Task: structure prediction
Amino acid sequence: MEEKLQELKTSLNNSIYKDKEFDKAMQDKTIHKIFSANSNKSRKLIPIFASTAAAIIAFILFISLDAFSVNENMNNIADTSSISNSTNANYLMITNSEDMPSLLLLNVNSDEKKIKYSFIPYSVNDKGKIYHPITSEKFNGLFGIEITQTFEINAKSIGEFVENNKPLTVNNPFQFMYKGQMYNEGEIRLDKNEEVIHYMTMRFQDSKGREGRNERILSVYLKLFQQEAFLKEILKINNSTDVETALLNTMNFEKVNVPFDIQPVNGVYGERLNENGYEILRDNFNINSK
Result:
């Protein structure tokens, strides 16, 4: 049994699962599960089925290890290999901050040399049911829009990146004090971890609320998109692709206003996409029809 598992490990080490740990303890645990599951079967069948089960379980364990090797600060939902040289693709950027994540929908169209964007509510009412938060898996079902790739980012990772690399200069729309830090109106410099996080997450003092916060988040991203290190280290875009080129060159950014109406359900906050909203989304983000 141990020889078969070792053979499987050797084979997998020559594939995409190279260097994944499958130590003696894991082998013993696998063997124990196999024999426990087959303890009530005929002894003549045990060697055959145990060997087959060992291979299957070992394979699953290798896949599980790979699936849960997630970067602490950033979870790239789709494999970066899915970022192809597509001339028209949709990207969903989920920025996690406090209790209200920010969802930025980007359409990168290299042929038109344009990037369209829209912010999507974090909590959506669809036919009287609240979806919170919106995930890439739910996006197509709710709006009929295909997401090419999703990036889920923690605001903390952005702050750490800025502090460890180079400062950002952004245009702050109004002066505010937040958590002991003064942010003056106009052009300001952000170079500390907490400065970046607080600038991106403050919303209660903003007269525009969530919309104002989202605009500040976008202003930070527009600066970071120009840094190749951010695309590679945080977004994990390691290949020369149209989306990387488009972001680095900050092609024409065009805001798309998608109308949502506030419609809570049983006291739970939610926003419903109105009929015009579906048409606007299809016209601007339906990559299959272009």
Residues 74-289 form a domain with the Aminopeptidase fold (CATH 3.40.630.190).
